[in-house]
Design goal:
It is built from eight helices and two strands, in the order E-E-H-H-H-H-H-H-H-H. It is 61% helix and 6% strand. It has two domains: 64 residues, no CATH class; 69 residues, no CATH class. It is mainly alpha-helical. It has a two-stranded antiparallel ribbon with strand order 1-2.
Length: 142
C-alpha cells in the first residue's frame, strides 16, 4: 500500500526523497506536522487550518502506511531457517527471500523485522543478501 484516501482531505502518500530533504532541519512536532502536510500535498499552514478530526484522519493514514505489512504465509514458509552451518546455496536462497521481504517493508522496518526472525541475526542477513546479489549479478553477466 503506497497511498490512502482520507475522507475530506484527499490522497495521502508518504513524502518522497526531495520532500524528506526539505524536512532535514526540522525537529519534533514541527517535523511531524510537515510530514503529514507534505503527504497530502499541502503546506504546513494549510494543514494547520484543517479541522482536528481531519488532521487525526491524516495521522492515522500515516501510521497505517508506516506500519509493516503482515507477511503472507507463503513468504514465511518460503525458507525454513535451520540451525548449524549453512551451505552457500542455502545462504543465497535465504538472501533472495530477505531481499524480497525488504522490498515489501517500509523504510526502517527491515532491521527490526530481521531481529524477530528466529535463527537469523542482522549480520547473517546482510551476508546472505550480499551473496544473493553477487549470485544474481553473475547470472546476469553470463
Amino acid at each position: 500500500m503506497i497511498e490512502i484516501e482520507v475522507e475530506g482531505v484527499g490522497t495521502y502518500r508518504l513524502p518522497n526523497d526531495w520532500q524528506y530533504g526539505r524536512l532535514g532541519r526540522m525537529r519534533g512536532e514541527q517535523r511531524h506536522t510537515a510530514v503529514l502536510a507534505f503527504g497530502c500535498g499541502m503546506t504546513v499552514r494549510q494543514f494547520a487550518k484543517l479541522p482536528p478530526d481531519r488532521q487525526q484522519a491524516v495521522h492515522r493514514a500515516y501510521l497505517t502506511l508506516m506500519s509493516p505489512p503482515e507477511p503472507e504465509p507463503a513468504d514465511n514458509d518460503a525458507v525454513a531457517l535451520p540451525g548449524g552451518r549453512w551451505s552457500t546455496e542455502l545462504k543465497v536462497r535465504v538472501g533472495c527471500w530477505l531481499m524480497h521481504m525488504k522490498s515489501t517493508l517500509p523504510r526502517g522496518h527491515f532491521g527490526p523485522w530481521v531481529e524477530k526472525q528466529p535463527g537469523l541475526s542482522r549480520s547473517m542477513a546482510m551476508q546472505c543478501m550480499a551473496l544473493a546479489r553477487a549470485y544474481q549479478h553473475r547470472r546476469q553477466a553470463a
